[in-house]
Write a structure and sequence with these properties.
Number of strands: 5
Oligomer: single chain
Number of domains: 1
CATH class: Alpha Beta
Largest sheet: 5 strands, parallel
CATH architecture: 3-Layer(aba) Sandwich
Helix content: 40-55%
Order of helices and strands: HEHEHHEHHEHEHHHHH
Radius of gyration: 17 Å
Distance between the termini: 28 Å
Strand order of the largest sheet: 2-1-3-4-5
Number of helices: 12
Structural class: alpha/beta
């Protein structure tokens, strides 16, 4: 399978043609917006609207807490396909772990979701779940990292793009667990600061970002500093490998 290039995404072709884009974030509680403050998907939206223009398109959050791949398949038509997206950001797996779905069932469902997205003429970018706080986890959540390689495998098998946050952020968790915990509201979910850093990472993946005007960079200063720290840690990790 030939891996898709970032520049080949439908959104960039439509932006170049001055056409409006639609981006859907599909997932569970890590995707659903349920707390005060900016969500990671807000940073993605603002990144596109600042870097391109404020009329670039619509960004629709279709995350629902506690959903596994089974629920995503069930509600796909009403909460994803109905919007006719050009791009779907797919983050799922935590609740498949919680519900004890086998890795093969998880893989099979990911492939089904991928195929449904492609059938509506949309691109898909897979995302891995950010690392959990294993020291504060218990029960089934201790197995969550077993599901991450399946996401990588399906992305590779389908030639899809992958935002591998789990791999990237592990460097920070290994370096300083206390610092890593500043990103989390509990052992599993991001707080406002964590959403900022993740949003900045994803916006950068798409070659967009916030601008100096209107104090946007100042607002994100602490998040940018930590993002650069994670960059440094991963460079050091690569050099020592």
């Amino acid at each position: 399978m030939i891996k898709q290039k970032l520049s080949d995404l439908k959104i960039y072709k439509k932006i170049a043609a001055k056409q409006s884009i639609k981006v859907v974030a599909l997932g569970s509680s890590d995707t659903q917006r349920f707390m005060c403050g900016m969500h990671w998907f807000d940073y993605v939206e603002l990144g596109f609207k600042n870097y391109h223009n404020h009329t670039v398109g619509q960004f629709i959050n279709s995350g629902v807490s506690n959903d596994s791949t089974i629920q995503l398949l069930d509600r796909f038509d009403n909460e994803c396909a109905v919007y006719c997206p050009d791009l779907v950001l797919l983050t799922v797996g935590g609740n498949d772990c919680r519900l004890g779905h086998s890795l093969e069932t998880f893989r099979s469902n990911l492939l089904l979701i991928h195929d449904k997205i492609k059938k509506i003429n949309s691109d898909v970018v897979f995302q891995t779940f950010y690392p959990t706080d294993l020291e504060r986890s218990s029960g089934v959540w201790l197995k969550i990292e077993e599901y991450i390689p399946v996401v990588r495998q399906v992305a590779e098998e389908t030639g899809s793009l992958l935002i591998d946050t789990e791999k990237r952020w592990k460097a920070l968790r290994e370096y300083d667990l206390s610092l890593y915990r500043t990103l989390l509201r509990d052992y599993l979910h991001l707080n406002e600061f964590g959403n900022m850093v993740l949003g900045l990472d994803i916006a950068r993946f798409f070659n967009t970002g916030l601008l100096i005007r209107d104090g946007q960079i100042d607002y994100c200063k602490e998040g940018l500093i930590l993002q650069y720290k994670i960059d440094e840690l991963n460079r050091q990790k690569q050099m020592s490998a």
